[in-house]
Amino acid sequence: MKIQSVNGEPLPHDAKPFARMAVIGAGSWGTALAATAARSGAQVRLWGRSGDVVDAINRDHRNPAYISDVDLPESLLAVREMRDALRDADAAMIVVPSQSVRLVSRQVAAHAPAGIPIALCAKGIEGETGLLMTQVAEEELPGHPVGVVSGPTFARETALNHPTAAVAAFPFAYRDRLHPEDSAAARFAVTLTTESFRAYVSDDPIGVEVGGAVKNVIAIACGMMTGAGFAENTRAALITRGVDEMKALAEALGGRRETVTGLSGVGDLTLTCSSPTSRNMSLGQQLGQGTPRSDCFDGAPVVVEGEKNAKSVTDLARRLNVPIPICDTVRAILHDGTPIGDAFAALWARPIESEPRAMALSLTHPADDTAVQTLAERMS
Ligand SMILES: NC(=O)c1ccc[n+]([C@@H]2O[C@H](COP(=O)([O-])OP(=O)(O)OC[C@H]3O[C@@H](n4cnc5c(N)ncnc54)[C@H](O)[C@@H]3O)[C@@H](O)[C@H]2O)c1
Ligand SMILES: O=P(O)(O)OC[C@H](O)CO
C-alpha cells in the first residue's frame, strides 16, 4: 500500500505493514480493529480476558459479547494468554477503557518483544495523574515507541466495512523525518488499510489524544440538551465551542491546534454528538430525559468514557489554567450534583467572550437572573 506523503513530503518508498499484530482487549473496538488488521493481511492475535469469548471467536468467528452480529475474518485468532498474543508480535494495539490502560500496559510490558511500537486506542485521561494515554504507556512501557490510533469510528460500522477513516499518530524522531515510510505512524496506517478503512498519519499524538478525550464529555453535554428537548441550534453551538475547548487544551499540553480540526477532533466530535449510537451521547440523552443514572442503559454496565473523563479532563484543564466551560458543566452535573437545568443555564449566561478565544476579549455582561431561571425551568 502506497502512502503518498507525510507532512507534505512525498515518500520515496512504500511503507511496510506489520506482519504480526497483537490486539490487547476484545471489547467492541478491539474486535473491530483486530478484524480490520486481519482483513488487511496481518496475522492478528486478539487477547481477551474472558476465555469463553476467546473460544467463541475462534469457533464461530463472531464475538458473542460485543458487536455480536458481525462476521469476523477466519484468519483472526483469539488467545486466552497475553503472552501468546504478544509472542513474536511486530506491533501491538492496546484497546481497553482508559482507566485500565496503566494496568494493562504493565502486563503488556512483561511480554512484549523489546522495542515494538505500541498504539493506544482508548480515549481518555488518567484520573489519578491527569496523564494522556500515551504518557501512561510511556511510563509503563519504557523502550517502546508509543502512539495513538483514533478517529470517528463506531466499532460496529467499522467491523461491517462501512467506509471509515482514522489517524495513526506517533512522535516523529529525526530518523522518521528522513524516512517517514518507516515511521510507526506510517506502518500502523498501512497495516490498518483495507478497501473500506482509510488511515491518515500524524506526528502529533497529543493533539490527537486531546480530541478523543474531550469529545466524549462534549457528547454527554449534547445528549443532555437533546434529552431535555432542545435541538439543532444547541447542538451546533456545543460542537463548535467544544472544538474551541479541545484546541485550547491541546495547545496547553504541547499539541497543535490544527490537529484538532482533523479526524480525531472535529471528526470524532461530530460523529459522537450526532447519534445515540454513541454511548456518551446516549447517556447524556437519558439523563437529560430525567432517567436516573442507575437506570440508564437498562442498568447494563456500559463503558461511557466521558463520565469519568469529565472529571479527569477538567482537573487537568484547571491545573493548566485553561477554561473549558462545557466540560466543566458536565462535570458539575455528573460529579458535583448540580441539577442539569441550573448547570446549562449558567453555561449560557456566562459573560460575553471573544471568538476565537486568543483575542482575550472579556466583556462583563451577566445575563439577568430572570433569563437564567427561565432556561433552568425549561430543562427541569
Ligand atoms: N466502541 C467504539 O466504537 C470505540 C471506537 C473507538 C475508540 N473506542 C475506545 O476504545 C476503548 C475501549 O472501548 P470499547 O468500546 O472497546 O469498550 P467495551 O466495553 O466494548 O470493551 C472493553 C474491553 O476491555 C476489557 N477490559 C476492561 N478492563 C480491563 C482490564 N483491566 N484488563 C483487561 N481487559 C479489560 C473488557 O473485558 C472488554 O473486553 C475506549 O476508550 C473507547 O473510547 C471505542
Ligand atoms: O460510543 P462512544 O460514545 O464511546 O463513541 C465511540 C467512538 O469513540 C466513536 O469514535
TrEMBL record:
Binding site for substrate: 123, 279-280
One BP annotation, GO: glycerol-3-phosphate catabolic process
Transmembrane regions: none
Keywords: Cytoplasm, Lipid biosynthesis, Lipid metabolism, NAD, NADP, Nucleotide-binding, Oxidoreductase, Phospholipid biosynthesis, Phospholipid metabolism
Residues that, per the record, bind sn-glycerol 3-phosphate: 123, 151, 153, 215, 268, 278-280
Pfam families referenced in this protein's UniProt entry, alphabetically: NAD_Gly3P_dh_C (PF07479), NAD_Gly3P_dh_N (PF01210)
Lineage top rank: taxon: Bacteria
Catalytic residues identified in the record: 215 (proton acceptor)
One function term, GO molecular function aspect: NAD binding
GO cellular component: cytosol
Location(s) in or outside the cell: Cytoplasm
Residue sites binding NAD(+) per the record: 25-30, 155, 279
EC identifiers of the protein: 1.1.1.94
Gene3D superfamilies: N-(1-d-carboxylethyl)-l-norvaline Dehydrogenase, domain 2, NAD(P)-binding Rossmann-like Domain
Catalytic reaction(s) noted: sn-glycerol 3-phosphate + NADP(+) = dihydroxyacetone phosphate + NADPH + H(+); sn-glycerol 3-phosphate + NAD(+) = dihydroxyacetone phosphate + NADH + H(+)
Recorded metabolic or biological pathway in which this protein acts: Membrane lipid metabolism; glycerophospholipid metabolism
Enzyme class: oxidoreductase
Residues annotated to bind NADPH: 28-29, 49, 66, 123, 155, 279, 303, 305
Stored HAMAP family: NAD_Glyc3P_dehydrog (MF_00394)
Similarity comment: Belongs to the NAD-dependent glycerol-3-phosphate dehydrogenase family.
Stored PANTHER family: GLYCEROL-3-PHOSPHATE DEHYDROGENASE, GLYCEROL-3-PHOSPHATE DEHYDROGENASE [NAD(+)] 2, CHLOROPLASTIC
Protein name: Glycerol-3-phosphate dehydrogenase [NAD(P)+]
Organism: Roseicyclus elongatus DSM 19469
Gene: gpsA
